[in-house]
Design a protein that fits this description.
2 helices, alpha+beta, 78 residues, single chain
């Protein structure tokens, strides 16, 4: 297992970077999971939200961690 982090302020382009990086890593045969932390309440997987964009980019798992709850989405696609 390899782990790395992407950190930055809101609006810095972290999700956009990951949207481009995940397909590249997936094409190399790696399974990619993401943990998304928020200091706010989380809203699960609405179009346009970071979790949705990361899942659509090819992440096998996306874990959302908010101030009041957490949620794990695991893709069943091959």
């Amino acid at each position: 297992m390899r782990i790395f982090g992407v950190v930055g302020h809101s609006g810095m382009g972290k999700t956009t970077l990951l949207e481009r990086l995940v397909p590249e890593l997936s094409s190399r045969g790696l399974l990619v999971s993401v943990i998304k932390h928020s200091h706010k309440n989380i809203d699960i997987d609405r179009p346009g939200k970071d979790s949705y964009r990361l899942r659509e980019s090819g992440c096998k798992e996306v874990l959302l961690l908010g101030s009041d709850r957490w949620a794990l989405m695991h893709e069943l696609r091959g």
